[in-house]
Specification:
The protein contains four helices and eight strands; from the N terminus they run ββααβββαβαββ. It has 171 residues and is of the alpha+beta class.
């Protein structure tokens, strides 16, 4: 399997833009609502904290068998950032991608996360990824709906209080 790197992904209304540290200021405002952390824990990051986090992510995984691909979700009209989406890809004979997304409160309920997740799954299928997984809190119905719309189904596996959702790519 060749090296996988985030690249722009286009949909009808969105562009998944590879993450840059320069996105931190705008994303800090997108991620500022404490309600976004109800299921995941934590609190809204400051622009400085977010910039440091993004720099770590951009530097890449210290494990050579793992690739980190991170994007901001950019609305095309008007152009503005609305969230992030990511894939942690474990390479090997059967590459697996663990995906996650977050959309800012003002943009929720508009199908943005679903459109981004579907686009990410389609992109991953072109990268030779065989399995896509996500871990979702059992009470986070909106995130479960996004996973389902992207083709993932719930499994009986639990990790840290979250249910694993899975999609096996058809060759």
């Amino acid at each position: 399997m060749s090296v996988i790197a985030a690249e722009p992904v286009f949909t009808r209304r969105l562009t998944l833009v590879p993450l840059r540290a320069g996105h931190a200021d705008e994303m800090a405002a997108v991620l500022a609502d404490p309600d976004l952390y109800l299921f995941t824990g934590g609190e809204p990051p400051t622009p400085r904290e977010l910039r440091a986090r993004y720099q770590r992510w951009i530097a890449g995984s210290p494990d050579p068998a793992v690739t980190w691909c991170n994007w901001v979700i950019q609305l095309d009209s008007p152009p503005r950032l609305a969230g992030t989406i990511q894939a942690t890809i474990s390479t090997g004979d059967e590459p697996v991608a663990e995906v996650a997304w977050i959309v800012g409160t003002p943009w929720q309920g508009r199908g943005i996360a679903t459109e981004a997740a579907r686009a990410l799954v389609a992109w991953l299928s072109k990268q030779s990824v065989k399995t896509v997984i996500a871990h979702i809190h059992p009470r986070h119905q909106a995130s479960a709906a996004v996973a389902s719309a992207a083709g993932l189904t719930p499994t009986n596996h639990w990790q840290d209080g979250e249910r694993r959702w899975r999609l096996t790519m058809i060759p």
